Each structure stands twice: as C-alpha cells, then as structure tokens.
Amino acid sequence: MSYTADKAQMSSWLLYAAWLIALIAMGGSLYFSEVNGFTPCELCWYQRILMYPLVLILGVAAYRRDLQITGYVLALSLIGTGLSFYHYLVQKVPAIAQTSSCTVGVPCSGVYINWLGFITIPFLALTAFVLISILMWMIRVQIKNISG
C-alpha cells in the first residue's frame, strides 16, 4: 500500500471510531433514562438532539467511507461540547447553577450519578463530544496531508 492509501485507511478507521463513540453515547443516554428511569433535564435533551443525529451521520459516512463529512460533524460536536461543558458547570459550580434557565421539569443542576466525585452524565456527554471532535480534526489533518 502507498502512503496515501495508508492515510485514507487510517481516516476511515477514525471515522468508524467516531461512530462507535456516538453509538455508545446514545446507548448510554437511553440506558440512563429508559432502564434506570432517570428523567432527562432540558439541557440533557439538547445534548441528545446534538448526539443522536451523529450516530446516523457517522454511521452512513463510515459505511460509505465519506471523509468529507467532517465539517458537518464538527459543527454538531463542537456545539455539543460547549453545551455539555456548560451543563457540567451548572452541576458543579453553585453560582452558575443559580443563573441557569433550566426551570421546567427536572433541574439541570441535579446529579443522578457522581462516579469518582466528578463523572456525571453531562461529563460523559462532554467526553464523547470532545473525542468525536478530536477524531474529526484528525481526519481533516489526514485529508489535508493526502491532498498536499
């Protein structure tokens, strides 16, 4: 295989990895709400709105080996990163929790899980969005290196 073919193959694997991360994140959110009975707050719903389409978009792109999808995925994942980070701050910083506009239903400052004292559901979403963003950035770098 040539250097260019190796780079293209690596990018395809990165795309597949991003799809797996999105799939696991979606499965985790459904597990927490449907199996454990945790009612999602308003910010959780927005994070789901950003993550769930990534499963479909990345799945189709991985199947088709469509590396040009990175811009669309980055847009969703970077917005999701910001939203998840804000939600995590709402949970962990009392001053920010007071400014939250999350007033209907479950409070956004509520913590269903707190593994190791810092891993909450928004932290898990933040991790998934950041990893997907990094993988998309890596694919973009690979594409740039291939095209010159």
Automatic annotation (TrEMBL):
It comes from the Bacteria. NCBIfam families: PRK03113.1 (NF002849). Belongs to the DsbB family. BdbC subfamily. InterPro entries: DiS_bond_form_DsbB/BdbC, Disulphide_bond_form_BdbC, DsbB-like_sf. It is a multi-pass membrane protein. The chain crosses the membrane at residues 12-33, 45-63, 70-89, 115-139. Gene3D superfamilies: DsbB-like. GO terms for molecular function: protein-disulfide reductase activity. One of its GO terms (cellular component) is membrane. Keywords: Chaperone, Disulfide bond, Electron transport, Membrane, Oxidoreductase, Redox-active center, Transmembrane, Transmembrane helix, Transport. One of its GO terms (biological process) is protein folding. PANTHER family: DISULFIDE FORMATION PROTEIN-RELATED (PTHR43469), SPBETA PROPHAGE-DERIVED DISULFIDE BOND FORMATION PROTEIN B (PTHR43469:SF1). The keyword RNA-binding does not apply. It is found in: Membrane. It comes from Polycladospora coralii. This is Disulfide bond formation protein B.
